[in-house]
Design a protein that fits this description.
Chain D: It holds the Pfam family ABC_tran. The complex is a heterotetramer of chains A (about 400), B (about 350), C (about 375) and D (about 525). Chain A is of the alpha/beta class. Chain A contains 13 helices and twelve strands. Chain A folds into two domains: about 240 residues, Response regulator (Rossmann fold), CATH 3.40.50.2300; about 140 residues, Rossmann fold (3-Layer(aba) Sandwich). The longest helix of chain A is centred in the first third of the chain and has 21 residues. Chain A starts with 13 loop residues before the first helix and ends in a 5-residue tail after the last helix. Chain B is mainly alpha-helical and about 350 residues long. Chain B has one domain: ABC transporter involved in vitamin B12 uptake, BtuC. Chain B is about 70% helix and about 0% strand. In chain B, helix 3 runs antiparallel to helix 13 and helix 9 crosses helix 11. Chain C is mostly helical and about 375 residues long. Chain C is about 70% helix and about 0% strand. In chain C, the strands form two sheets. Chain C has a two-stranded antiparallel ribbon. A two-stranded antiparallel sheet of chain C has the order 2-3. In chain C, a hairpin with a 2-residue loop joins strand 2 and strand 3. Chains in contact: A-B, A-C, B-C, B-D, C-D. Chains A and C meet through helix 1, helix 4 and helix 5 of A and helix 2, helix 3, helix 6, strand 1 and helix 11 of C.
Amino acid sequence: MSQENGSPPVSSRTRPLRRAIALGASAALLVALAACSTVDDGSSISGKGASGSANCGSGDEQSAITAAVKGRTLKVGFAPPILSEFYTQVEKSAFNRMSELEECYGIKWEWARQGALNDAHSGVEAVGIVENFISNKFDAVFVCSAAAHATMQEIYKAGSEKGVDFYQFNSTEELENPSQADDPTAGLSTVSNIGYDDRWQSGYIAGQYLAKALQGEGQIVQILGPSGSDWTKLRQQGFEAAISEFPGMTIVGSADGGYVRDKGLTAAQDLLTKFPDIAAIYGENEDMALGASQAIDLAGLKHWDGTKGIITIGADGLISGMDSIRQDKLSATVDVNSVDMGRTMIDTLFQHEILGMTVAQFIQIPTVVIDKTNVDWAEAKIAASQAGSGKY
Amino acid sequence: MPSRPRSAGQVTRNAWERLLVDPTLGVISLLLIFALIAAFALPVFYAGNNIYNLVGTIITVMILSIGMTVVLISGGIDLSVGAVMALCAGVAATLIKMGAPLFLAFIAAILVGIAAGLVNGLLITRVGLPDFIATLAMMGFASGLLYIATQGVPVIGYMTDEYYVIGGLRPLFGPVTFPILVAVILALVVGWVLASTKLGTHFFAVGSNALAARQSGIPVRWVKTQAYVLSGTCAAIAGIILAGRNNNVPADLGTGYEIQAISAAIIGGASLMGGRGRVFGAVLGALTLALAINIINLAGVPSSYQKIVMGVILILAVIANYLSELARGATLRRQAKRLSSIAA
Amino acid sequence: MKHSSPFARIMSIPGMPMTVVLIVSVIVFQLLNPVFLDGRTVGNYLTNGIPILLLTLGVSIVIIGGGIDLSVGTVAGLSAGTTMFALVNGAPLAVGIAVGCGTGLLFGLVNGILVAYLRINDFIVTLATLNIAAGLLVVLSQVQPLQGVTVPGFSELTKGSVFGIPTSFFIAGVVFVIAHLLLAKTIVGRRLYATGISAPASNVAGVSVPHLRLFTFAASGLLAGIAGVLFASRLGAVQAFLGIGYEFIAIAGAVVGGITLAGGGGSVWAALVGGLFLATLQQGLRINNVDPVYFSIVTAVAIVFGVVFERQVRRVILRAALNRTALSTNDRGRSADQHMNERQPAERVAAVTAPEGSKNDAK
Amino acid sequence: MTYPAKPTSTRSLMLEVRDVTKHYEGVTALDHAGLSLGAGEIHALLGGNGAGKSTLISILSGVTKPDSGEIVLGGEMISVSGPLAAMSAGISTIYQELSLVPALSVLDNIYLGRELKRKTLGLPLTLDRRRMEADVRDLAADFGVTSSELRQPVSEFGALKKRSIEIIKALAFDTKVLILDEPTSGLEEAERRVLFSHMRSMRDRGVSLIWVTHHLEELFGLADKATVFKDGRTVGTVDIASTSVGDLIGLMFGAAQEEFGGGDTRKITHLEPSHKRRVVLSARNLSRGSAIRDVCLEVHEGEIVGLAGLAGAGRTEVVRLLMGLDARTAGTVELDGRRLSLRNSTAAYRAGIAMLPEDRKQLGILADLSTAQNISISRLSTVASAGFWMSRRKERALAEDYRRQLGIKTPNVEARIGNLSGGNQQKAIVARCLNTSPKLLIFDEPTQGIDVSAKVEVHALVRDYAANGGAAILIASEIEELLELSHRVLVMKKGQVVGEVRDIPAAIEAGDFSRIKSEVLTLSAAGQIS
């Protein structure tokens, strides 16, 4: 019924066509509307790089690696927990790296994105998505899921037995693994986990930044993601750990901002009402921090100007937040480095799948706090990674 | 006068009795109780501009619930408001970003809202789908369109100085913000339509007894369709405002808003059976919801209890409305008795 | 031809038109990607889909009885949470399952009592319990991480197989067969349909409508509880937010399958087929790697299409049947006159709002 | 062509319907039907169920479009494209089921669809309620609706007032033709008289009335002409002054059928004096809040006890208490000497009380279930094995039994009951009651909305039931019907029993019909205990 693993896969040109047919056929099935022509997600695939000229190493190296690639096509699945700006940044960076590798070594890619639309946290959809990648005999799958450790590892295990390699990205696997204290890699069925910040997620860095800016003094409120999310819990732990190192700093209140801007705004307004004298607002992601920034404007309070005012700090590193930093609306954000995450994912994949390298179980991407001092290069870097028209 | 009770007889009523027969009594009392609790337990409730903030927070839900009330009165339900709101916000934002003047972008957004309402109405009245299903499909369709257009990346870079005013992030004059003004005008206009125009009467007629409406020559299907168009328009207006308040339009902007809008309308006394509801009630219902979250945040209640509180409020509102209905019945009977004794 | 043809008779069974659509869509998807019907793939996607199918079934029972239940999704989520909670704290398997099912049943009973005996509108009641169940799961998940269960046999509920067939198929099969027999063959089922057609008339005819209402919500709650146990077993861990939004999927599935939202019409088969159709559609798109941004539009169109198709098929068949009766009966006019005058009020309202062509259709 | 042969001679022609044909889904509802209506004439439209009357009405009122045919109003051919077109042409309809909107005020209801508007900002947007009220105030007062009542929601009024509101609604505009579909249904004797006087005054205003009714006796002294429909065709038009009930029935059902008759042929079952018979039901001091107070009721074996009273007197409420449909606040019910708790209708059926409810369409039939299923529902255990497993075979056999026994006309007991005629539906409901082997059977308005022939059959069922030793309670608003069938009548007013009339069969036989009738009516109205 299904093709053998390793047999020549369906050529990459027919594949999008099939997607179109699937969608078209369902459409035809449904309304007898042959609306499939509207679905065109890449019939013009050519993998144009963003940079145009990639660094392929020396001539010998290039030809040797090209020989090792043997013109193979890697079939890669990409499963973000939701569709959002952050994951799009990661995906586009990955595309750029993919096209560079293609240009240098002749490797071909087949890329399929599947993400849950409304069901980021429960894992029900993630399970279905990953299983489909297994059924379709993908070579490797990148997963970021908010579903629990136990849920996902079990599927990875089953998939690995079928010959699919799993890579987690933007993950907190190291922290979630129940055996983290003695052996963080125990029971993992992933090839590698590409994340950032070894212990405390972005929260710790944000806390440190605040402490430094405020010189260890001040009251802080935090706006958290939806309560019940592990992500929220970890970032909160990290943040609180950082703050607890400074006795002059206290977290006086927190509220639910649901990871979205308007709820963040509402939560910040309520917190500002109750605690008008705070020095800083920590938004657990950038959107909520931007909501808090608006609340500061609405309350007629002053933003941080380097010496006084309220500091707002978020975390993500979104291109959409850079202007706010430049205008002092958002004091800072923890850039969890979507650019290098995307590139590292592809590099790790290439190293392991093509070159047969053993890769680290936990790979950590450098992170940086972006504020007005470094916003220019940070934005330029992200923008460059997004500029490529490459699509897979 | 938009808020005139529909059943005002010529019986003279003192203020107390007028309150007792007011259909909004239930939600008013609920709101009062909350405000009292807040006042006693949380002095900070009246601090600064908390109440002003509270109103700013709830404007979008309020506008949605005004449209929802009309749909409920005409005997339907609209689950698509949240998704349509997000789609309209996306349309407005994208057009502005592409350089369109604000008012053109807004007109386009409102046209999209009207179109969505029209499709809802036609699916229900011409194709004959149950309202629940038709608007559920519209919810998927509208949010799908936004996802396709944005690929999940929020629309940004459309904010202008005017848009900050429109979003309510900067006041219009004095303490009045543009969204508050819009909400008030919308409430007055829709309230007036319901109470004093032919169309308003027809909304009630269609929701209360569709057969009688048809036999009286009312174009039942068209009236129902208009209710959905009105709801779609409200969704578009809410979307335009929310896009300004939010500064970006993520694809999931509208998630959960339909439930909030329905809850607000029901808390405000609208009936799912049709033929009953008031704009004023919807406005108060939306305020009640906002107040609940406000109290949770101010009191420092762990936000994990937020949803439980929402559920409990719904039940309380139903009970409050039921009690107010009892009070209303008793008062009316008393008056009837008094009237007949006068006659005799 | 005196009686209706076998084909017409089969197609007039609730859910049959959608069954045809389901079969066609399976064939189309299989032709597009042969992996679709691969045993493992089918096993997986059905195993994933079974809890939601159970929710569809629960909602269907409530709808047939003339009500609606919005709380099924989050109640299933909470049930998954309580099951996990019990097992994590060392309860034996049977107790864990009982706790999950009991949670669902408890919520069903609360819904039922509020709706049937306190006469609060079911939409509002279940909207409230939807929020309450979701909130309780959040609280529960903060008490203790709901994962790491090692109780033997628990994961086998969804991951094991008997004779190569996944265990959860047997569970779902038993549940669906029981539900079918209950609805189609027993006194309770008959009373259920009667209540859905007209609660006041059923009440006069000797059906205790409140008991029945309570029964429908309890059944729906219990099914949500079972679904929750399966979710927990399948996922191996339960997080907050599980089940949010599933109420819409469940109701859409029921209606697409041919369960009339007004009550009194439909069958267990219809619920099954409708739920399966939506799940199959999503699976078909996914296995062909269609970008997920298209999913919700396709599903939306499918819902509209499903309902319209079902009705059109039924209309064509009924028209043919009516024509035959018209020829065989001598008192002309009667039948049509009856259609004009003998409708139930709900139908009449439908007739008023429905398009011209369908107005005089028998239901 | 079976056209009315007799042209309207004295009065000028107001409305003429020619050659109207209408098919529904292959069924011919109207077949070249016609009708001629003079100006200022009360014109009865008669026919059995399914004769095509309702279709003609819905065509005239614009709800249905005919396939072919002409409608001529006041000499001009009109096309009735919708309800509004009909109304603006001058044709108004008052439907059998009240078509008022409960949520709206009386005034809004009267003007529904034809609202008067005044200018706001130069545009005619706002409703001009003041002018509407001024325009209609006098007319409303004529029909007993005060101007403060005009502003109250319709939901607060009773049946007669609602009917008056509908009449006002029809007359508020320039109505030339008023169609009344069973206008007396749900009205009491006294209310009927009020309505009839309204009808006369409308005729005097020059309005032509089309009057659809099953109560042929009502026609005499009121209607001018009658047109009879059968099988979608016009059978003929007659002058009421020169015809009789028998003639009309002959036209309606094809042959003179003597047994169908208003007051001519009464079959009365004589009973022994009541003290010699066993008491089946004994209800003491039944109360429900202030709506029902201290009602005592005894029914003996073989006896039919009638409940008389005006609408709102509490008759239906009393029997609902007996059925356990509503909870009583005080009182005891004993059946065959056994005290009943009556928590719900299931318990009532099990104990041996059964009820045929008023309002067949809403409370009687379960339209989407089959005839067989409608019969078995009251006691499903008779068609089930092991107490819960339905047996289709048993159910069918049961239904077939009753079909033969009661003469239910249906080609198939497994066909949808909604497709049967009203009379046959009612028989199926009787079968449903009999299926529980009741000791007491309650008939609440058993002949409402069914045609004359079916009425006679239902009467026979009631009599047979009692003749075989059953005990029955009968509620009928039509006083003649009540007296014809009952052995004894209790009169109710304001939730209480205010009087009793005994030995009715004997009295009727003695020729005292009108005396008893007036006695009952006086009691109902005045409530003096005799």
